[in-house]
Amino acid sequence: MTEKDLLKKEVEKRRTFAIISHPDAGKTTLTEKLLLYSGMLTTAGMVKGRKGRKAAASDWMAMEQERGISITSSAMQFSYKDVIINVLDTPGHEDFSEDTYRTLTAADCAIMVIDASKGVEKQTLKLFEVCRLREIPVLTFINKMDLYGRNPIDLMSEVENVLKIDSYAMNWPIGSGKEFQGIVDRRKKQCQFFLRTPKSGSQKTDIFTYPLDSAETKSKLSEMEYKELLEEIELLELAGNSFSIKDFLAGKVTPVFFASALINFGVEFFFDAFIHLAPCPHKRKANLIDGMEIEIDPVKDPFSGYVFKLQANMDKRHRDSTAFIRICSGRFEKDLVVKNTRLKKQIRLSRPHGMLAGQRTTIEIGYPGDIIGVINPSFFSIGDTISLSGNFNFKPLPQFQPELFARIQPKDVGKRKAFDKGVHQLIEEGAIQMLKTDQGDLIFAAVGQLQFEVMQYRLKDEYKVETIFTPLSYKCSAWILGDIKTFKKSTTSRLVKDRHDHPMVIFDSTFDKQYTIDKNPDHRFVDVLF
Ligand code: G4P
Fold first, then answer.
1. pLDDT at residue 213 in the model
2. Ligand 1 test: best mutation among 123, 262, 263, 267, most atoms within 8 Å of CB?
3. Ligand 1: does its nearest atom lie under 6 Å from the Cβ of 171?
4. For 59-74, what is each residue's pLDDT tens digit?
């Protein structure tokens, strides 16, 4: 076998993905079950950080420790059956930040977890939009079928109408709530029945599989239930969408799975389908320095990757931050010397680490799809491309509309210099956005509250500057494209500039935003800037 053949084999084995959901839909529970079914946990119910997730921002390290395995790193690697899983951490709740969006760009596909009683919620919608923009295919996991939720057909229609994507049920639930007892595998025309025991959830669930038209299946259901089930399956065949992997990868259709992550019903079916459907690392678009568009092939091209996240102070003894790099092509080896296109500088990637089998480990070798963390003594900024040639850049990371705004000032005016230095560093890292008004006032902006907490904590911890935080009442924003001189502002909105001097408008309500958009038909307003 040649080196390229070996590389191809490694690439084909990898599934790098993120789980997106609204808080409480069950992302943590599903991740935990993936660990259970892959043999990394012997008993589920051990992952920390669900309850009591609200940690004091005053203790950054404790915050990380308390939030357990999904927080200590940007990605976790382990094997499930014969594939290698890289699951990216896309925090929700109060951990939600611009990092969540940026991390999503490092995924090759996403699992969208939806609570069956709630349907498509706000944060899911936002994250789904990022997937659409980045052409990331999405699988839908409709969770909590063990509780009485909404009708499965309704839920699928909601996915279609709200997210503007076709849906295709890969399985169909047999009963719901207390009567949720199995699923129909539509492709094989088989039923999987589950045995509910007091241990359901903490261990793998026993499955009993029978053909849909078998005597065993009929014996498990009343005549009425069986008849209804057949009617539903027939309806799906006649009136439902069709499914092809090609359409799924093109983002035209999302395969839907009904399950309960808590009691492990339908979970194994989902994981098995997932490793089959989810794509392995593929070509990524890039631009040569002269602007020419090229594609970087994971197998044919030598090592390349990009920085999607910087995290400061993971090790309190060092001031350095950690840069998380998604490998896009070629084989990575410890101590590899690469070029950062932006700095035109050579960098040795020493002390690379990752999360393997739940432990922080040194990475000796990595392949496309893998995430490596490297110590960053200010060599990297968010979005930097690194490669052997140093002559191209991957697509820039998008910037997202901030929804939280505040003034942050040093308590002691004598600390202004240290404050400015710290702020500059945080902005470089992409930890916070800074907006400027016409009068030269500074407004700090974020997509998640945690960003402000981290900013204040790091200014105090690393730059010894205590700050005064004053929240502002603005609720949303947009970048504005067009002639700024003809822009008609509403009374409460405010025109500002971002750090690259792109004009933006900040609004105190979504209503005001819509009103302003309507009043300015010759201007374009964008929520995500590429
Ligand atoms: P998140 O990461 O998306 O925020 O959600 P998480 O997994 O933490 O789940 C949120 C709550 O929903 C948890 O309950 C969890 O046990 C519950 N849950 C997750 N999946 C299912 C499911 O399939 N069925 C049912 N009935 N519940 C589910 P909690 O009370 O907030 O926490 P805990 O005390 O159970 O840890």
1. 94
2. 262
3. no
4. 334 444 444 333 345 7
Residue 5 half-sphere exposure toward CB, CA atoms < 13 A? 2
d(CA 190, ligand 1 centre) in Å: 29
Q: Which residue has the tokens 């969006």?
A: 101
Global confidence as pTM: 0.89
| Closest ligand 1 atom to 23 CA | 4
User: For the residues of 15-82, what is the DSSP string, one character each?
Assistant: EEEEEEE-TTSSHHHHHHHHHHHTTS-SSSS----STT----TT-HHHHHHHTGGGTSSSEEEEEETT
Give, in words, the CATH class of 399-529: alpha beta
Note the CATH number of domain 284-394. Answer: 2.40.30.10
Ligand 1 pocket check for 25: Cβ under 6 Å:
yes
Q: Is the CB of 262 under 6 A from ligand 1?
A: yes
pLDDT tens profile 328-337: 999 999 899 9
Higher pLDDT, 93 or 397: 397
Q: Note whether 13-74+89-277 and 399-529 share their fold.
A: no
HSE (CB half, 13 Å, CA atoms) of 449? 10
CATH architecture of 13-74+89-277: 3-Layer(aba) Sandwich (3.40)
Q: Is the CB of 51 under 6 A from ligand 1?
A: yes
Q: Is the CB of 354 under 6 A from ligand 1?
A: no
Mean pLDDT of 489-499: 92
| Nearest-CA residue for atom 24 of ligand 1 | 144
pLDDT tens, residue by residue, 403-413: 999 999 999 99
Q: Which residues, in sequence order, are bridge partners of residue 167? A: 254
Residue 109's pLDDT is 97
Q: Is the CB of 393 under 6 A from ligand 1?
A: no
Domain extents for the chain? 13-74+89-277, 284-394, 399-529
